[in-house]
Amino acid sequence: MIPEIGHFALILALIVALIQGVFPIIGAARGNAVWMGLAQPAARAQFLLVAVAFICLAYAFATMDYSVTYVASNSNSKLPLQYRIAAVWGGHEGSLLLWAVILSVWTVAVSFFSKHLPSAMRARILGVMGLISVGFLLFMLSVSNPFERLIPAAMDGRDLNPLLQDPGMVFHPPMLYMGYVGFSVAFAFAIAALLGGELDSAWARWSRPWTTLAWVFLTIGIMAGSNWAYYELGWGGWWFWDAVENASFMPWLVGTALMHSLAVTEKRGSFKAWTVLLAICAFSLSLLGTFLVRSGVLTSVHAFATDPRRGLFILAFLVLVIGGSLLLFAWRAPTVGRGGKFGVVSRESFLLANNVLLAVAAISVLFGTLYPLFLDALGLGKISVGPPYFDTVFAPLMAPALFLMGVGPIARWKQATLPELAMRLRWAFGISVATAVILPLLLGHWTPMIGLGLFLAFWIFATTANLVYQRLRGADQPLIARIKSNSYSWWGMVIAHLGIAVFTLGVTVVKGFESEIAVRMAPGDVAHLAGFNFTFEGVTEIEGPNYSASRGHIRITKNGIERTLINPEKRVYHVQNMPMTEAGISPSVIHDLYASLGEPLDGGAWSVRIYHKPMVEWVWFGCLMMAFGGLLAISDRRYRLKGRTKPLPENATEIST
Amino acid sequence: MKRALLPLIIFLVVVGFLFVGLNLDPREVPSPLVGKPAPAFSLPRLDNADKIISNKDMLGKVWLFNVWASWCGACRDEHHVLVALSKSGVVPIYGLDYKDTRLDALQWLAEGGNPYVATAVDENGRVGIDYGVYGVPETYVIDKAGVIAYKQIGPVTEAVLRDKILPLVKRLQIQ
User: I need a surface site. Which of A151, A187, A527, B47 has the fewest CB within 10 A?
Assistant: First the structure.
C-alpha cells in the first residue's frame, strides 16, 4: 500500500510539474498574471508530492518490504538501518528520485526567496525548473520506477553493494546532487533572462548567491567522494580520473568560471553572453554527467545500472534541454549588449583569461572522458585514456590559471598597468620562487613539477597576504574594525583562494614525496618506510553486522618510540560474497600513515601494502576552505537587502568569489 | 549569430557520438583468446573427483564452456537459460566450477537443475587464469578443432543466446 502511495504521489507530481512548466512561461509571454501566479503554488505542491514519494520509498527500505523490486535489489535484512536508508539512493531508480527531490528542494527555495524579483522573471525561472522536473519524473515513471512490485516477494534482499556500505554513502551523493542540481537554478535564471530579453546586472546579482551555494555543495560533495575513495579502495589514491569523477568535476570547473564571470557581469556589465553560456554549460554538464553514469555508455566502477532504453530516454532529454537552450542562446545572445569596455591589462582581462582556462580545462576533461567512446563509435578499437592523459593536459592549463589567480584580485578594474602590478607583486614573486627552489631541497629532492607546484601554492599565499595587508594597513581604526570594514564576500574570496593554495600545496607534496611498499608480512615481521617501523602483529577474525573481517594489527614506531596502532581490515560481505578492503590510516597534519591488507598467504602471513602520504589531508582541507569561503560570500549582507535593484557604483572595486 | 551557433553545433556532434555509443557495449572487450586454441586443462569432475575431464575429450564437436560458481549472483540469472538450452540438446554445455567448494556447487546444481554434461572443478582458479576469466559468469563457444570462436562476458541472456551464440553454433556445426 505504502509503495502505491509513493507511486501515485509521483504521478501527481508529474501533473503538477507540467502545470508549473507550461502555464507560467506562457503567462509571462502574454502578460497573464493569473497564469504566472500558478508557478509558486505549483512549485510548493510539487515539492510536497515528491517528498511524500521519497518518504514512502525510505519507509519501504526501513520496514524491509521486499515486495518492491528496488528494495529487494538494494537492501538486506542484515543491513544496518543507516545503510538501509542510504540504500534509497544506492541504485539507479532511487538516485533519480533523490535527483527529483533535490530539484524540488531548490525550486521551493527559489519560490520562497524570490519575492523581490519581477513577477514575469520569477514565473519563467520556476517554469524552467518545472520543465526539468517533468523530464526526470517522466523518466522515472516510464523506465525507472522505484516502486515497481516484485511478485512473489523476495524472501530477503540482494543487499546493497558492499562498496557503498560506508558512512561516505550517507553524505557524498546528497551533497554531490545538491551541487549538480543546484546549477539548475543558475540555468533557469539564464534561460529566463534570455526568454525575457533582460540580461542586465540585476540578473547577475540574483543568480550569484544561488550559483555560489550550488558550487559550495559540489565542492564538498567531490571532496567527500575523493576522501571516501582514499580509505575505501585501499590503493592510497584520492583521485582516479574515473568517468564518474570527471562527470562531477566538469560542472565544478565550469561552475567556478561561472561564479567569477557573474561577478564581472554584476559589477561591470561585461561578459553577459559568456556568462549565460557558462550557466547553460554548467547545468548541461551536470545532465551529461547523469547520462554518462546512468546510460552505461562508459564503463566505470560507478555504473551499476545499465539499460539502453534508459540511455535513449536521457539522450533525448539532453537534446531537448541542452539543444533547446543553446538554440535559444544562438538566437538571443547576439542582441545582448557588449557591456563596459576594458583594457588589455585589467581585472576584467585577468578574469576572462582565467575563465577561458577553466572552460578549456573542462573541455579537455570532457574530451578525455568521451575519447574512448568516440574511437569506439568510429570503429577504431577500444582504448582507455587514464591518468597519463589527464595529468599531461590538466597541469599546463591549471598552472597559468593559478598564476593569474594571484594577480586578478590586485589588478584594477577597467585599466591596470603592468609596472604598477610588478611593483606590488615583486616581493610575493621573490618569496615564492625562493620557496620553490629551497623547500624541495630541504625535503629531499627537487623536480620541475614539485618546483612549479610549490611556486604556485606560495604565489597564491603571498599575493593573497599582500592583498589583505594592503586592505588592512593604515587608518587609525583598531584592527577589528578594519577587518569588519571589508565585506563578507571579499573575505570569502580571500579564504577560498587560500584554500586553493592549501590544496595545491597538498597535491604537490603528496605527489612529489609519497612512498609505498608492498611486502609479505608474517606476525612479528617489521617493514620500514619513511623512517617508520611497521610491526605486523597478526590478524584477528571479527564479525560485523553483515560481514566477517580479518582485522590486521600494525604497530608503528619511530626511533623506538611507539606512535600508533592501525587496523586495516579485509571484509567479506555475506550476501554478495564480495571482499572489501578497509584501509588502516593514521592521519595527521604532516602525513598519513596508511596500510591495507592484500591477500592471506601461507603460515598466517599476509601481503600488506604500506603507504607514507605526506600532507595528503591538506588536499581535502583546502576544499573545505574553498567551501567555507563560498558560504561566507553568500552570507554577505547585500544579499539580505531585499528589493535592491540598483547596480553598484562604477568605482566599486571589490570582487567576491 | 554565426558565432553564437558554435556551442550548439559542438553539442550536436557530441550527441551524434553518444547516440552511436549507446549501441556499443563497453563490456564487449575483444578477448585475445578468440581465434586461438582453447587452453588445455585436465581437472577432476564435480560429480566424481576420481574422474578427470580434459578439453581433449570434446575434440570433434562444438561445445559451450560456461564458467560458473555457487557464490556468483549473476550466475543465478543465466541458469534457467542454460537449463533450457541443455534440454533442447542443440549444443552440449560443459561447466567450469570456478574457485568454489564442492559441496556448495553440488547443492546449487541440485537446487537449480544441472545443464552441464560435466563440470570441471577449478578449485584454485588456475584454469580460469589461463582462460582470462575476469568475472563470473563467462561463456566460451569452442569449435570442433578446439579453437575459441566467441567469448561472452557476463550472463547468457535469451537475447544473446538467440542473436549470437546459437547462429554461431549452427555455423560451426556445419563446418
Answer: A151
Same domain (yes/no): A437, A295: no
Mean pLDDT by 10 residues, chain A (657 residues): 94 97 94 92 96 96 92 89 90 90 96 89 95 94 89 82 84 91 95 86 88 96 91 80 86 95 87 91 89 60 51 85 92 75 84 92 88 71 68 88 90 82 88 91 86 94 92 78 84 95 95 89 91 92 90 92 91 83 91 89 86 94 96 83 43 40
Most A CBs within 10 A among B14, B18, B72, hence the mutation to make, goes to B18
> What is the separation of C-alpha B21 from the centre of its chain, rounded to a whole number of angstroms?
23
Q: What residue in A sits closest to B8 (Cα-Cα)?
A: A326
Which among A344, A369, A402 is the end of a domain? A402
Q: Contact at 8 Å (CB) between A248 and A218? A: yes
Asked if residue A640 is part of any domain, the answer here is: no
Question: Domain boundary at A513, A545, A578, which?
Answer: A513
Specify the pTM. 0.81
Residue with cell 547520462: A291
The span from the first CA to the last CA of chain A, in angstroms, equals 49
What CATH number did the domain enclosing A91 receive?
1.20.120
DSSP string, A570-635: EEEETTTTEEEEE-EEE--SSEEEEEEEEEE-GGG-EEEEEEEEETTHHHHHHHHHHHHHHHHHHT
Mutation target for B interface from A294, A373, A576, A602: give the one with most B CBs within 10 A.
Answer: A373
Looking at chain B, list the stretches that DSSP marks H as alpha helix, in order from N- to C-terminal side: 2-22, 73-88, 102-112, 126-130, 158-160, 166-174
SS3 state at A541: strand
Q: Is there a domain that residue B24 lies in?
A: no
Say whether both A89 and A112 belong to one domain: yes
In a domain, residue A189? The reply is no
Backbone angles phi, psi at A38, to 5 degrees: -70, -20
Asked if B4 lies within 8 A of A373 by C-beta distance, the reply is: no
Least CB–CB distance from A334: residue in B4, B19, B21? B4
> What amino acid occupies position B44?
P
